[in-house]
Design goal:
- The protein has 766 residues and is of the alpha/beta class.
- It has a domain of 197 residues: Dimethylsulfoxide Reductase, domain 2, CATH 3.40.228.10.
- The protein has 25 helices and 30 strands.
- The strands form eight sheets. The chain has a seven-stranded mixed beta sheet with strand order 6-17-18-19-4-5-30.
- Strand 8, helix 7 and strand 9 form a beta-alpha-beta unit.
- Helix 4 runs parallel beside helix 18.
- The two termini are 37 Å apart.
């Protein structure tokens, strides 16, 4: 039977109704090992089998000590009782505090499937009930999403169809400079589903065509070995300074595309004055950049010359913008590409997020696929996605966001469905304090992860293996059937079944379900897609599609796409961008008018709050890189077989340079303590010179396992880096997360090594 996931499509082997194993599809050239590991998690002891209510909440006890969220026992209840509690609580909070007191900004990847999209189901349900406070942007790319519309126009994600695809790069490009690297581990995934992994082979094709790669990253393995990339181990958070040093070299040597800058951009003269020091007295030359970045002084002018004289492409990965002033490297990378002379030429110029998802650079998009109809949210309030702890701790406070002043709402009920805030949010001890503030937290979960343990009401949900759906991934031109492989564990129900039952109690079941069953919805959405595409796609009827294990292919989209840089270069008057000037905004009058001291009118070097040149580095001399894991998607299937195999004595691995390890007496396989003033966690040491000295790498996604749950400041036994990262917006413009601006130290752990309990359910009473 076909299985579609964010990390690829597989085949499930089922015997007598029991899931035996999950195998890669035969036509996938680079299948992810995450898929087969799903089997071990399907029925492990961490499954939520019945509705459960936190004992203290049920009994009206104050949230202190052992009755706090995260530390309390749970009482299993019937579905009837659970649905009554949730519906009555929604009704009470709306009546007493208003619809904006309900937070439905539930954020996360959830699972693949066009109909069973967790956030879509939740938000439809809450909107029909009166509305909710939403969140805006993503933890992955908040700074990028806000800055790019100002600089190049278009919707936040429109750049995906405006940058070169890998085939074009192989044909026309000579030099790729990748800021943040091109880690293939990230290309395992694609939101919504993925038929075949293509990024590895497309990268290889580029190298075989003679394209040279430069990896600007603290981590050498951020590019595949077969790319033979030149490694420039840059001090974390200094990419903007390096780009400025390159730009200054281009300027003083005349190595820049004056025609393109004049016709297709605005504000280069003001930016040039900043480069030369006329604005602030600081010349941003190669010597200046070398002192900041740690890159050899002679390397910078050489790279500037190569970018200008060769057909070049500047890539930026998402990691570099999840940092203090994260908008700046994104903005500056566009400016550098405009100066270099390749922007708007085939296979060259600028792009973002290559290898972050398999579809990026593989296809410019796909035809629209029907999904559960959205309902307009009657509540206008929203918060920037990474400011949830601020909102809970300081209701009524005001913050800046993209030229607006937002008043943080007073949230009384959190409804979380399809995400794990105790994975993706920064400074988990601060989040612990904030999470005690709302009156009620409702969570849909399949496993007793940290978010479930920090809830008041936990409703068990079916996994993607336990329901009918079809997958349509981001930009991936395939539809893949997802028939149910197994029955839901215990008393689990689908999110849709739960919301339909709640809507019935609240008086709007018919509006929510439109009188369709789940399989009727799946058939309806497929039929809508088929009708919308018409003869161009010639999709089979549903019954044939449902039996087609390899899925069906949608017609390819062809350009030019709105906002095309090629069209802009050819005729900026005829093909303007949607920026205020119609051109690329090297200087943005709009951003300048906001008056932000941490994001001015042109790309600027701002010293990070935490970096290796900061005074704090005297106490915490290692820069923490908390990048994406190779063994799972974020925190999904951390309890799966593949992720569990990657652990060291049950802890998440942390990679440290042998020089830093030797000075601390650390050897391979040791349990170490990673710490700063915000918290500490245990991890298993891996020594490797693929990480530059002064840097440690600890991937995100290990289920948080505080030794004293519910109590802020306690040791994490498992290795979640967000125990250590700072919870501050990267600037007043985007308020995005700044996870990659964090200093730590590491030491051999000589305390009692307690058992990891991340996958152990809380105490359950019946």
């Amino acid at each position: 039977m076909p299985v579609a996931t964010h990390w690829g499509s597989f085949v499930a082997v089922v015997d007598s109704g029991q899931l035996v194993r999950i195998e890669p599809r035969g036509d996938d050239p680079a299948p992810s090992p995450i898929g087969p590991g799903m089997v071990t998690a399907a029925e492990d002891s961490a499954r939520v089998l019945r509705p459960a209510v936190r004992k203290g909440w049920l009994n009206g006890l104050p949230r202190v000590d052992e009755t706090a969220r995260g530390a309390d026992a749970f009482v299993e209840v019937s579905w009837d009782d659970a649905l009554t509690l949730v519906s009555e609580e929604l009704r009470r909070v709306r009546a007493q505090h208003g619809d904006n007191a309900v937070f439905g900004g539930s954020y996360g990847w959830a699972s693949a499937g066009g109909f069973h999209n967790a956030q879509g189901q939740l938000q439809r349900f809450l909107a029909l009930g009166g509305g909710y406070t939403d969140s805006r942007n993503t933890y992955s790319t908040a700074a990028l999403e806000v800055i790019l519309p100002h600089v190049i126009g278009g919707a936040p994600w429109s750049y995906q169809s405006r940058m070169p695809m890998w085939d074009e790069i192989a044909e026309s490009c000579e030099l790729v400079v990748a800021f943040g690297g091109l880690a293939l581990k990230n290309s395992q995934i694609n939101p919504g589903g993925l038929a075949r992994h293509q990024t590895r082979d497309l990268q290889r094709k580029c190298r075989e065509a003679g394209v040279r790669f430069v990896n600007v990253s603290p981590i050498r393995s951020d590019t595949a070995d077969f790319l033979d990339a030149e490694w420039l181990p840059v001090i974390p958070n200094t990419d903007t300074a390096l780009m400025l040093g390159i730009a200054h070299t281009m300027l003083v040597n005349g190595w820049y595309d004056e025609d393109f800058l004049t016709r297709c951009c605005v504000g280069f003269d003001r930016f040039a004055s900043y480069l030369t020091g006329d604005v602030d007295g600081v010349v941003k030359d190669a010597d200046w950049a070398a002192r900041i970045t740690g890159i050899d002084r002679d390397t910078i002018p050489d790279l500037a010359r190569r970018l200008f004289t060769q057909r070049s492409l500047i890539m930026v990965n998402y990691a570099i913008q999840r940092a203090d002033h994260g908008e700046q490297p994104i903005w500056m990378s566009v400016v550098l590409a405009a100066m270099a002379g390749s922007l708007g030429r085939p296979g060259c110029g600028w792009g973002a997020g290559y290898a972050t998802m398999d579809a990026t650079g593989v296809a410019p998009g796909r035809p629209s696929v029907a999904s559960m109809p959205r309902v307009a949210n009657p509540v206008a309030d929203f918060i920037p996605v990474a400011r949830i702890a601020d909102t809970l701790l300081e209701p009524g406070a005001t913050i800046d966001y993209d030229g607006q002043r937002l008043t943080l709402p007073d949230l009384r009920l959190i409804y979380w469905c399809g995400g794990n805030p105790f994975h993706h949010h920064q400074d988990l001890h601060r989040l612990t304090r904030a999470w005690q503030r709302p009156e009620t937290v409702v969570v849909h979960e399949a496993w007793w992860n940290t978010t479930a343990k920090f809830a008041d009401i936990v409703l068990p949900v079916a996994t993607s293996l336990e329901r009918d759906d079809f997958a349509a991934g981001f930009s991936d031109p395939h539809l893949v059937a997802m028939p149910k492989v197994r029955e839901p564990a215990g008393e689990a129900r689908t999110d849709h079944q739960i919301f339909a039952a709640l809507a019935a109690r609240l008086g709007y079941e018919r509006e929510f379900t439109q009188a369709r069953s789940e399989i009727e919805w799946v058939r309806h959405l497929y039929a809508q897609t088929r009708a919308n595409l018409g003869d161009e796609a010639a999709l089979p009827d549903f019954d044939d599609f449902w039996q087609h294990a390899s899925g069906v292919e949608l017609p390819a989209l062809s350009g030019p796409f709105p906002g095309s840089f090629e069209a802009l270069r050819s005729d900026p008057q005829r093909f303007p961008l949607t920026t205020p000037s119609g051109r690329i905004e090297i200087f943005s009058e709009e951003i300048d008018s906001f008056g932000y001291d941490d994001c001015t009118g042109h790309p600027t070097w701002f010293e990070p709050v935490e970096w290796l040149r900061a005074d704090l580095a005297d106490r915490f001399p290692l820069h923490l890189i908390s990048n994406q894991p190779a063994s799972r998607l974020h925190s999904q299937y951390d309890n799966g077989g593949h992720s569990l195999k990657s652990k060291i004595q049950g802890r998440e691995p942390v990679t440290i340079n042998p020089q830093d390890a030797a000075s601390r007496g650390i050897e391979n396989g040791m349990i170490v303590r990673v710490f700063n003033d915000r918290g500490s966690c245990l991890a298993g040491a891996i020594l490797s010179d693929a990480v530059m000295p002064g840097v440690v790498q600890l991937s995100t996604g290990a289920w948080w396992d505080p030794a004293q749950p519910g109590r802020s400041g306690t040791l994490d036994r498992h290795g979640n880096p967000n125990t250590l990262t700072g919870d501050r917006g990267c600037s007043r413009l985007s308020q995005g997360p700044s996870a990659h601006s964090a200093l730590v130290d590491v030491q051999v752990y000589d305390g009692p090594v307690e058992e990891v309990r991340a996958f152990t359910p809380p105490h359950l009473e019946h």
